[in-house]
Amino acid sequence: MMFFIGDNVIYNHEEYFVHFIYDSEYLEISKEKNKMSNCILVHKSEIELKK
What we know:
This protein is α+β, with helices and mostly antiparallel strands. It has 2 helices and 4 strands, in the order E-E-H-E-E-H.
């Protein structure tokens, strides 16, 4: 599956936006974050609070 920054992603029945995409060498770092393969996901509610 291929994701791009800004994409909407449904993960565990919640809506997220792809915030950052790691190169494979940074995959270890992403394990500590909300992750789906090599992406940091930001929950939709967090985005709406920042507007």
